[in-house]
Design goal:
The structure is a single chain. With 339 residues, this protein is of the alpha/beta class. The chain is 41% helix and 16% strand. It contains 11 helices and 13 strands. A 7-stranded parallel sheet has the order 3-2-1-4-5-6-11, with helices on both faces. Helix 1 packs parallel to helix 2. It is globular and about 55 Å long. It starts with a strand and ends with a helix. Bound molecules: uridine-5'-diphosphate-4-deoxy-4-fluoro-alpha-D-galactose. The site of uridine-5'-diphosphate-4-deoxy-4-fluoro-alpha-D-galactose has 20 residues, from helix 6, helix 7 and strand 8.
Length: 339
C-alpha cells in the first residue's frame, strides 16, 4: 500500500524539492504551508514537474486544531517538518517570534503524531555543532551552545523529538542535520526564492550575476584556511531531498535501529567561499563582481560533514558535483529573471 507523507512547509525551498523526490519515489504527498515566507512559485513548479495538482492545505502549524484536523483528514504515515522561520539575524532581533513559531508548530505536530503513532522527520541543521575543531563532524560530535535563537530552536526541537520518542510508544523520529543546501531542480521549475536581500551565499551570487545586486561581499579573507575564506559543506538540494526519501523509507519500513536517529546530510567535501565563486564563474562563463569585506559576526571558520553514517545506514550519498549544482542555481536565477 502507498504510504502518505505530510510535508509541512512543502512550498518552500527544501520542502518543494523533497515533495518532488517523494512523489517520484511513489509516496502520496500532502503539502501544507501558510505561505508566510514564500509565494506559490515553487508549489506550481512542483505540480508542473510531477504533471498533476498536488494536495495543498493552507494552514499554520501553530494552530493546534488545524493540525489535528489535518491528521484526521489524511492517512498520514510520516510527517516531515520544514515549516519554520530560518533567518539568523531576524531571530536575534525577534527571539519570541522564533520560539513561538518554531517550537509551537513542532509541539503541535508531535501531539498529532502521538495520537496517531506516526513517524516524524525533523529538519535540523549543522548549526547545532557550532564552532568545532573536530573536523569533519560526526553525529557524535558534541553540540555547542547555540549562538542565535534560530540555532537554539533547532537544538530544542531535536531534544523535544528525542524526549517524545522516548515517552510515546509508536512515535519514531529522525533528525537530519543539513550542511549548506544550495542549487535548484535541474528543470529550473523550483528553486530558492529569498525575500529581500539574501543572507546566504549562493542566492547572493546568482542575484549579483543577474544584475539584481551590484556586488557580492566576501565576508573575511584572513581566516585560518588555505585561501583565508570560510569553509563549508555545500550540499545539492536534489541530493539533500533524496536523503529524505531514504530516511522516510527507513522509518516506514521499520528499519530504524533506534527509535530516534540523527544523520548528517552533507558531501564530506569542504569548499571555500572563493572556490565556490570560481566554480560558479567557470561553469557558467560569468564574471562576478565581488570584493572582500570584513568578517560577518557569528560565522564559524570551517565546518563540513562526515557523511559515513548516512551512507551506511540510509544508503544515501551526495552524487551531484559542485559544477552541476552551480549550473542549476544559475539556470534558476535566469529563469526567474526571464532570461
Ligand atoms: N558569505 C559571504 N557573502 C555573503 C553571504 C555569505 O561571503 O553575502 C559567506 C559566509 O561568510 C560563509 C559562507 O559564505 O562563510 C556561507 O554563508 P551562508 O550564509 O550561505 O551559510 P551559513 O554557513 O552561514 O549558514 C548556514 C545555514 C543557515 C544557518 C547557519 C547557522 O545555511 O541556515 O548556517 O550559522 F542558519
Amino acid at each position: 500500500m502507498k504510504k502518505t507523507v505530510l510535508v509541512s512547509g512543502g512550498a518552500g525551498f527544501i520542502g518543494s524539492h523533497v515533495t518532488v523526490e517523494l512523489a517520484q519515489a511513489g509516496y502520496d504527498v500532502v503539502i501544507a504551508d501558510n505561505f508566510s515566507n514564500c509565494d506559490e512559485t515553487n508549489y506550481k513548479g512542483v505540480c508542473a514537474i510531477l504533471g498533476r495538482q498536488m494536495p495543498l492545505v493552507r494552514m499554520d502549524f501553530c494552530d493546534a486544531a488545524a493540525v489535528e484536523a489535518l491528521f484526521a483528514k489524511y492517512p498520514i504515515d510520516a510527517v516531515i517538518h520544514f515549516a519554520a522561520f530560518k533567518a539568523v539575524g531576524e531571530s536575534v532581533a525577534e527571539p519570541l517570534m522564533y520560539y513561538r513559531n518554531n517550537l509551537l508548530s513542532f509541539v503541535n505536530i508531535l501531539e498529532a503524531a502521538r495520537k496517531k503513532g506516526c513517524n516524524v522527520l525533523f529538519s535540523s541543521s549543522a548549526t547545532v555543532y557550532g564552532e568545532t575543531d573536530q573536523l569533519p563532524v560526526t553525529e557524535a560530535s558534541p553540540r555547542q551552545p547555540a549562538t542565535s535563537p534560530y540555532g537554539n530552536t533547532k537544538q530544542m526541537c531535536e531534544d523535544i523529538l528525542r524526549d517524545s520518542v522516548k515517552a510515546y510508544p509508536g512515535v519514531r523520529g529522525i533528525a537530519l542535520r543539513y550542511f549548506n543546501p544550495i542549487g535548484a531542480h535541474p528543470s529550473a521549475l523550483i528553486g530558492e526564492l529569498p525575500r529581500g536581500v539574501p543572507n546566504n551565499l549562493v542566492p547572493f551570487i546568482t542575484q549579483t550575476a543577474v544584475g539584481k545586486r551590484e556586488c557580492l561581499s566576501v565576508f573575511g579573507n584572513d581566516y585560518p584556511t588555505p585561501d583565508g575564506t570560510c569553509l563549508r559543506d555545500y550540499i545539492d538540494i536534489v541530493d539533500l531531498a533524496k536523503a529524505h526519501v531514504c530516511a522516510v523509507t527507513r522509518m516506514c519500513e521499520g528499519r530504524m535501529k533506534e527509535d530516534y536517529e540523527i544523520f548528517n546530510v552533507g558531501t564530506g567535501r569542504p569548499l571555500s567561499v572563493l572556490e565556490l565563486i570560481n566554480a560558479f564563474e567557470r561553469v557558467n562563463g560569468v564574471k562576478l563582481n565581488w570584493k572582500f569585506a570584513p568578517r560577518r559576526a557569528g560565522d564559524v571558520v570551517a565546518i563540513w560533514a562526515d557523511p559515513t553514517r548516512a551512507e551506511q545506514e540510509l544508503g544515501w550519498r551526495a552524487e551531484r558535483s559542485i559544477d552541476e549544482t552551480v549550473k542549476a542555481a544559475w539556470a534558476w536565477e535566469k529563469k526567474l529573471a526571464g532570461k
